[in-house]
């Protein structure tokens, strides 16, 4: 979640490569998660292995209790709600019998490891995609951290296997260190805006299995037509679901301030064009997507998740007890600008949702 910004910034964008600015959004997301984890909003034993905050982070928030990466309560609550909502929907997918997950713009996300932990879901494969810079960093971290790579099942020994291959690693790193493949997991470098790039996923996923496409805060950085090309490509999966976390309603005053502030980081949001959560959900039903169109879709703002989905007891136990939120109106305003949207195609996944 991006920090809520105050008006008044007149800074000019420093000359950063716009793609560097997009890649840096993973730091925002991971730093927010780390803050929420450190303050007890969320459990995530894998995050410290996949994300290390810079010593003097420019978006690090206040020092003090919770460490230098402590974020304001609004951000921590938003991170808690979005993580919990996406986790609940992913669990519903696995309760339907499971299948495979394709996570776009995965950044430093830890979900694969959290899912692998317990109770073991029926997950045949989990594929993560991001720019090569991100995947090479993640591949290095996985390769040097036993807590991360010990989760991968050992390769099956072949009858002719030599003693040395029996002790070989359960993963391979390739493509100049930017790809990593294990039996249940792949990390693939590609630019989702390049229509030919998705061929890099050929052979990794089984088109006959139920497949969940996960894109948390990714499509907002892409033009809608580039996202549509990805959704059309995804039309090869007949039993399929898509689950996104996105910003909405950015045409209002809050959105304008946010866009102006992001522009100072050379960051634009060409894909954040949906006014409401319903608009965001409906994009997945567009007949122009052809076989990539979904049959059912729905969405909830984070505020709707706060009021209707998060159990009251969880709100009391985790949220109210942790930090004092004076500004419920400000919380409502910020949470109303983010939504979780999902859509399904095929019978197995029909009915998933809140
Ligand atoms: C805001 S971060 C979100 C990371 C992660 N999904 C999460 O929620 O914690 C956006 C991620 O999408 C990736 N991304 C954005 N545009 C992309 C593109 N065209 N191709 C590949 N990755 C992209 C960025 O590099 C970054 O890691």
Automatic annotation (TrEMBL):
Region (Disordered): 1-27, 150-172
Residues of the signal peptide: none
Enzyme class at the top of the EC tree: transferase
Compositional bias ranges of the Low complexity kind: 161-170
UniProt keyword list: Methyltransferase, S-adenosyl-L-methionine, Transferase
InterPro entries named among the record's database cross-references: LCMT1 (IPR016651), Ppm1/Ppm2/Tcmp (IPR007213), SAM-dependent_MTases_sf (IPR029063)
Catalytic activity, reaction form: [phosphatase 2A protein]-C-terminal L-leucine + S-adenosyl-L-methionine = [phosphatase 2A protein]-C-terminal L-leucine methyl ester + S-adenosyl-L-homocysteine
Function summary: Methylates the carboxyl group of the C-terminal leucine residue of protein phosphatase 2A catalytic subunits to form alpha-leucine ester residues.
Name of the protein this chain belongs to: Leucine carboxyl methyltransferase 1
Native source species: Dioszegia hungarica
Lineage of origin: Eukaryota, Fungi, Dikarya, Basidiomycota, Agaricomycotina
């Amino acid at each position: 979640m991006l920090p809520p910004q105050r008006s008044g910034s007149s800074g000019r964008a420093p000359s950063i490569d716009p793609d560097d600015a997009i890649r840096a959004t993973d730091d925002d997301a991971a730093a927010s998660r780390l803050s929420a984890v450190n303050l007890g909003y969320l459990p995530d034993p894998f995050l410290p292995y996949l994300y290390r905050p810079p010593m003097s982070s420019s978006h690090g928030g206040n020092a003090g209790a919770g460490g230098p990466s402590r974020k304001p309560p609004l951000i921590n609550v938003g991170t808690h709600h979005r993580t919990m909502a996406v986790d609940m929907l992913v669990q519903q997918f696995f309760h339907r019998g499971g299948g495979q997950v394709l996570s776009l713009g995965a950044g430093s996300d830890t979900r694969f490891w959290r899912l692998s932990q317990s109770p073991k879901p029926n997950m045949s494969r989990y594929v993560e995609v991001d720019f090569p810079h991100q995947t090479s960093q993640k591949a290095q971290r996985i390769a040097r951290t036993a807590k991360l790579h010990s989760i991968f099942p050992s390769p099956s020994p072949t009858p002719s296997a030599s003693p040395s291959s029996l002790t070989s690693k359960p993963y391979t790193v390739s493509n100049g260190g930017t790809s990593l493949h294990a039996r249940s997991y792949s990390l693939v470098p590609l630019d989702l805006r390049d229509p030919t790039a998705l061929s890099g996923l050929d052979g990794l996923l089984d088109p006959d299995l139920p497949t969940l496409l996960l894109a948390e805060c990714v499509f907002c950085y892409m033009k809608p037509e580039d996202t549509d090309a990805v959704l059309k490509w995804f039309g090869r999966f007949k039993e399929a679901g898509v689950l996104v976390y996105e910003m909405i309603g950015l045409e209002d005053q809050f959105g304008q301030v946010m866009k102006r502030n992001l522009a100072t980081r050379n960051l634009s949001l060409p894909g954040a064009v949906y006014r409401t959560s319903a608009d965001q959900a409906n994009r997945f039903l567009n007949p122009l997507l052809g076989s990539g169109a979904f049959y059912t879709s729905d969405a909830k703002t984070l505020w709707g998740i706060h009021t209707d989905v998060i159990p009251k007891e969880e709100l009391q136990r985790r949220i109210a007890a942790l930090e004092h939120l004076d500004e419920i109106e400000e919380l409502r305003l910020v949470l109303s600008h983010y939504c979780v949207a999902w859509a399904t195609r095929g019978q197995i996944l029909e009915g998933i949702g809140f």
